[in-house]
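FIELD: query
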Amino acid sequence: MTAHLTDTPVLETARLILRAPKASDFEVFAPFVMSDRARFIGGGADKTLGQAWRILAIITGHWHLCGWGSFVLEDRATGQPIGCAGPWMPGDWPEPELGWMIWTPEAEGKGYAHEALLTIRRHAYADLGWPTAVSYIDTRNARSIALAKRLGCTLDLAADRPNRDEPLEVWRHPAPAEVLGA
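FIELD: result
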């Protein structure tokens, strides 16, 4: 028997099913974490299989500890996991974050993260009651900065940042009223 999270929402977009993580996602997740493509989220070529497993366990455990967390982006056409995105707030984060990762090179540049984040942001505001959201982005991560801009985020120079070694910027998402049309 494989354990799985229960009572977690499943969101859908035109091309994606957004669901909680499961053990079988590790097959796609591990190569991502152990590649240079993951350098902005704590991964990299120096990471081991064990470290990749622990990172997936942290993402999965966030659901249990908070009642919400990052959704795995599952391609509707293939049923394959291609990344994750969603609400995130470790205990030392100053504000709730919306984050994203595209795990497979084949899925990059196709708008999957944008599509997922539009739905997830509405979920964070409407269902979780978040009054605001930010995305903490490494200053060297040009692709994520471009996506933040496409999502309507603005650079917030006055906001607090997580205490990390990486040079992070705070990108503030549009307010709930703008997103939900209230």
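FIELD: remark
The chain has one domain: 11-180.
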